[in-house]
């Protein structure tokens, strides 16, 4: 769990997402950010929390994340058993924005737990305490979800999805993406453009059947390696190509392609 809204995060707008979010926040409707990994979803929510001057609590969900992890549990402290609020309960009580990153990865009881918070009731039932708490007026639930049109990704039920206002994130258009790389890493503009060209070339190679393709995050990593002095080709091989696949033939083909373009 991270709590951080102190530093103004850099976020390059790609559409009307900030406007939509502000309106959704003013009605406190739950918000869903859809899109592949590394497309700026988390950065966007950090930026919005800062803009709205709200505390942000982030939980990265994984297959073991349960409602107990979010709501809270009894822990043994010395000779006593004491109750400890989980991040969801803290956010509900204090009026923070709770960001459930990759919500579909979590165990199904998480969806059940947030149910009454996502409709007009705005309340949280804590079964272990037998209490129900009303959400603080500033509380808002935000989740991210990777729709993953290929295998291996978990789905979100339509009945859950329809409790959220949603927007789609994708790779920014070339100019914006190059700008992000330059701003994030101080890399030369010409190098930023080359990295974006490589990414777009690989993104269009759908026949490779990659589960996930080159994200802005991978490009930022490559740019950081280049910025710190690693030879450009090595930076691209290790930060862009290697994380994408373990298929040696594909790696070789992509490395060759990158060498021609960097
Ligand atoms: P996601 O949550 O979608 O997996 P992140 O928000 O963690 O992705 O983005 C990954 C990285 O890509 C960020 O750390 C940032 O460097 C960069 N990034 C992507 N999109 C943007 C954007 N629109 N503005 C600024 N940085 C961005």
Automatic annotation (TrEMBL):
Q: Which domain of life is it from?
A: Bacteria
Which residues belong to any copy of the CbbQ/NirQ/NorQ C-terminal domain? Answer: 177-260
Q: Of which family is this protein a member?
A: Belongs to the CbbQ/NirQ/NorQ/GpvN family.
UniProt entry keywords in alphabetical sequence: ATP-binding, Nucleotide-binding
| Entry keyword annotation includes Nucleotide-binding | yes
Pfam families in the record, alphabetically? AAA_5, CbbQ_C
Q: Does the keyword Nucleotide-binding apply?
A: yes
- Note the Gene3D superfamilies from the entry: P-loop containing nucleotide triphosphate hydrolases (3.40.50.300)
Write down the InterPro entries for this protein, in alphabetical order. Answer: ATPase_dyneun-rel_AAA (IPR011704), CbbQ/NirQ/NorQ/GpvN (IPR050764), CbbQ_C (IPR013615), ClpA/B (IPR001270), P-loop_NTPase (IPR027417)
Q: Give every ATPase dynein-related AAA domain span.
A: 31-164
Annotated protein name in UniProt: CbbQ/NirQ/NorQ/GpvN family protein
């Amino acid at each position: 769990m991270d709590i951080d809204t102190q530093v103004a995060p850099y976020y390059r707008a790609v559409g009307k997402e900030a406007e939509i979010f502000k309106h959704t926040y003013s009605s406190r409707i739950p918000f869903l950010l859809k899109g592949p990994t590394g497309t700026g979803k988390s950065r966007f929510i950090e930026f919005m929390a800062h803009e709205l001057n709200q505390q942000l609590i982030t939980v990265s969900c994984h297959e073991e994340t349960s409602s107990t992890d979010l709501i809270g549990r009894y822990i043994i402290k010395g000779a006593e058993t004491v109750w400890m609020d989980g991040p969801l309960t803290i956010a509900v009580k204090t009026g923070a924005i709770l960001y459930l990153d990759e919500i579909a990865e979590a165990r199904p009881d998480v969806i059940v737990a947030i149910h009454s918070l996502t409709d007009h009731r705005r309340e949280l039932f804590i079964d272990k305490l037998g209490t129900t708490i009303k959400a603080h007026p500033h509380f808002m639930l935000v989740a991210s979800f990777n729709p993953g049109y290929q295998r291996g990704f978990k789905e979100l039920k339509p009945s859950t999805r329809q409790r959220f206002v949603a927007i789609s994130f994708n790779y920014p258009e070339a100019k914006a993406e190059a700008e992000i790389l330059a701003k994030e890493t101080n890399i030369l503009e010409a190098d930023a453009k080359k990295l974006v060209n490589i990414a777009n070339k690989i993104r269009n190679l759908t026949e490779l059947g990659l589960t996930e393709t080159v994200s802005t995050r991978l490009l930022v990593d490559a740019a950081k390696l280049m910025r710190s002095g690693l030879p450009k080709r090595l930076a691209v091989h290790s930060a862009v190509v290697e994380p994408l696949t373990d298929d040696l033939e594909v790696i070789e083909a992509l490395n060759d392609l990158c060498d021609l373009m960097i």
